[in-house]
């Protein structure tokens, strides 16, 4: 499944692999990534883009079943975070928290220039 969302000027692309999402799950993902866009609103311009890769793999370790890779392409940089967990909701929450710290670092770097 590929889902594309345009919010303000940031483009979000969600790609799933070995995973079928219910409509309620799609809405949950949209809401969570929308909050991240709001958090990163100062970063968004016409060239900013967010790519989300979600996948499910049968694994010996249940805590590695879901993988979420989040990449945000911003002017002059690329921010990337990855997480694995046994729950789709947990893996998305974790990757968003990791990305928030990278956004803060990026904001600080931009303000120094």
**CATH H-tier superfamily:** Ribosome hibernation promotion factor-like
Provide the residue-averaged pLDDT: 84
Low-confidence stretches: none
Structural class: alpha+beta
Widest sheet: strand order? 1-2-3-4-5
Q: Write down the domain tally.
A: 1
Q: Determine the CATH topology.
A: Double Stranded RNA Binding Domain
Q: Globular, elongated, flat, extended or rod-shaped: what is the shape?
A: globular
Distance between the termini: 40 Å
CATH architecture: 2-Layer Sandwich
Q: Helicity range of the residues? A: 25-40%
Q: Which H/E pattern describes the elements?
A: EEHEEEH
Strand content: 35-45%
Number of strands: 5
Radius of gyration: 14 Å
Number of helices: 2
